[in-house]
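Hi R.,

Here's the chain you asked about this morning:
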Amino acid sequence: MEAGSEDWPFPIKRKDVKAQLPSVWYLIRHFDRANQWLEYSYIKDYFTHDYQLDSINTSNEASLKLFYTNHFNRMLLTGFTIRSSRYIQSANLHYIEQDDKVRLKRILQQNNTVLEFSYDGPDGAMSEIVYPNGLVAKFDYTLIEIDRNVLMNHFLTHSHPRTAHGPGYLLIGDITEQAQVRLRITDVLGTDTVPVADLSFPLLGKLPVIDYEMFTGESFFAILLHHEETQSELCLFHAQADIWQSTPTYIKLPKDTSIHTGHDFLLAIQQHRVTVVERQNGKWRALKPFDVEKSSITHFFSHGFLVYNDQQLRMFVRRDDSQWTPNVLPLPPGMLENSTSVFDRFEHPDEIIRNFKEGIKLDALRMFHNVVVFRSLHLEGFKLYARLHLFHLNGKHEVSRQTVVDVLIEDLTTYTFNPPEADGNVFAFGYRFEHGKFRLKVISHRGKIMDEVEKIKEKIEQDIREQPNAPEAEKQRYRKESHEKLNVELEELYRNITSQIPFAIDPAKFGVIVNDAHIIAASHKVLFDG
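And here is the predicted structure, written out as C-alpha cells:
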C-alpha cells in the first residue's frame, strides 16, 4: 500500500479568501517509502489572489527557485535557478505586450539569448523561433473556414430530447405532441448508417408518457416509459445479424422500479426484490424475482449482482446451465452490525451517528474487475481500521482465492484534528477515551482567548501582590479559587466549541473508491497485481 494523501497544512488567512472558495489546498511536502521528500513553498499573486509556486527543495539537497516580476498588470515568471550537487543552471524570461496580449519574447542564460520568439501569425500566433546556432524556424498559417452545417448533424426534436451511446451506435429520443417516445438510431457521429428492420422504430407508449429513460447494451437497448398513475413500461429491442429489429417487446413494471444494464441482460430493481430480464429462445422474458431483504446491501455488475443481508453474502450469476442461482461467498455474518457499532463508541449527537451508520453501507460492497470487495470497520484498542475482504473470482464466478487487508484509518491515541485559525484562535482537537466512549477534547489552544487568560492570571497575581500583609493561606485560597473559576469557564467554552464539530475524522476515510486501477480505502491505494 502507498499513501493516497499528502500533508496539507498550508494555511490561508480568512481575510485572504474573501469572496473566494472557503479553502484552497496546496501540496507542501511529498515523501516516498524510502523517506525521500520534496518540499514546496508558495508566493502570493496579488493580481489574482492565488498562490504561485516559489521553490522546490529535495532531500538530496537539490532545489528549484522561481522568480516573479509585476509587469503588464500581472505577476510574470521572469527567471528560475536549478541547483544540484553537480551543477547550477539559471535562466531569465523576457516578455512583450503585443495586441493587448503578453507574449514570451526571449529566454536568456548568462545574458545570452537562448531562444527568441516572434508572434506575427494570425491572431498573434507564433511565427518564428530563433535558436542559439542561428537556425530559424518559421511557421506559416492558412485560414480555413468550414461551414458549420458540414461539421454538425442536426436533429429536430420535440420535448424531452435525450441521447444514449451504445457500442457503435447512438440513440436519440424525444416525446412527441401525442405523448409518445420517438426513437432514432445512428452511428456515434450521428450519421444514418445503422441498419434498422422496417427502416424505423414505431412510436413508443400505449399510454401517455410523462418521462422516459434509455439503457444501452452491446446487442440490445431498452426504453423505460413512465406514466402519470399507472405502471411503467419497459420497451426492449435487440439486434439480429447486425440489424436492429424494430418491433418492441413490452414488459410492465411497478412504478418504483429502477433498471441496471448487464452484459446481455437487464435487472429490474425494487426495494424488496430483483428481477432478471433476458432473452430466452429468441424472446424477452422476466424471470422469477429474487427476494431481497430491505436491510440488505446490494451491488450490480456486468454479469450479475451481489446481496449481503448481514448473514450471508450471495452472488447471483447465470450458470453454465443458463439458470440464475445464488452462490454463497465465505464472508462472516454480522459484518454490517460490527461496522456500524464502531460509531457507538464515539460521543456525538445521535443524528450524526445514524448518518454515519447509513453512509458506510452505501459503498461497503463493490467489485474490482474479478474481485468482490467488502469493506468492514473495527477497532483494535485505540486504532481504527478499515478491513477489506477480497474474493478473487475465476471464469466461472467461483471464489479461487480470498484475501483480507487491514488499512489503518486513524490511531486515536495520536490523532489530532487541526482546523484553520478562526477569529484569532488556533485549536487542536483529539479523541480521549472516557467512561467507555471516545470524547472529542481540546488538546491545545493558542491565540486571542489564551492571551486573555494569561492577562487574567497576571491580574490575579497582581491582586495578590497588592495585599502583602494578607496571610499566605488566604493568598493561596484566592489564587486557587480564581484559577478554578477560570478553568470552569474555559471548559464550558471548549464544550460549546466541540459540540459544533459533527465528527473530527474525515468521513471520506471510511469510504471505498473502486476504479479500473485501484481500490482506495482510508486514503490509501491498495495496489493489486490481479
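One quick note: The chain has a mean pLDDT of 86.

Cheers,
M.
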